[in-house]
Fold:
Amino acid sequence: MTTQGLRDLTVLIVEDNEHMRMLLPAILNSVGIRQVVEAVDGTAGFEKLNTLSPDFILTDLSMKPVNGIEFARMVRRRPDSAKPFIPIIMISGHAERRFVEEARDAGITEFLAKPITAKSLLLRIASVVDQPRSFVRCDRYFGPNRRRRTGKHTGPWRRQADRDDIVIQ
Amino acid sequence: MDNKAVEIIPPEAYPQVMPRAESEAFIQVLTSQGALARADRVVAEQRPIIGHAIAAHVSGLKSAFAAGDLDAAHAEAHEIRGLAGNAGFAAAGSISDKFCKYLDGTAGKGVTPDPLILRLHVEAIARATQARDEADRFGRAVAAELDALVAQRLAAKA
Structure:
């Protein structure tokens, strides 16, 4: 990709902390990504998603009134979402397992714990561009496949609720 | 739900950020030593600005705690734990994280947080943001001690 190509990318940052809203664009600008749009909560972020058609999203978790997890659900599931497949990188100080799992189940693509480093952010961006995952759609979930292992499956069951069709003779 | 109700959509079947041919070059540019060095410089340049923000959040934390507003104190500590590492105040970030977890833990158990433990955390966070190197060294030790104290108190109330 040329430097011009990097400049063509548009990133949506959804973050209520003004200092993170300074730091994240500064990092992106330093590597040549110039088009950055900002929103301060999930509702504003969803509006910008639909009007500006960004290429990927960086979102905080804790925001009011609409937090990052609800925002991710809106992006993935609302019928009026312009880009339900867009990569979503969540950046949060809530690195506890339950928050990470809740974010994953809302359909985020990557999770990055604060404090961030430039390298960790750029590697997450590289990951969502270079290693896109299959999406899964079922009654209770729509988003990137939550199973990251790509090894060949050798057993009969892939999901807890799969029917047991194996007959042992 | 059985597998018939699960649809798998491979990457080729939905829009990507960029075509595969372009993404390889993108990754090379994005993860080059030059790009990482430029990005690191930017983060370093933001340190003093974020340091000022931390000072404001510490002030807010002290005020909220003094007023008995634990929700506001939690919100301030949450901001500190997210930003402190980018201002060179790793210990303050770590202690703020423990403060938030203690409040979350007591709320989860339905018990009243111990005011002494809260005060020790607030004071330790404030001290850890003053003299950087020394405070960071001692701050880590304080964080470890507070962690042990919190674990002991939460276990006792389980």
About this structure: The longest strand of chain A covers residues 10-14.
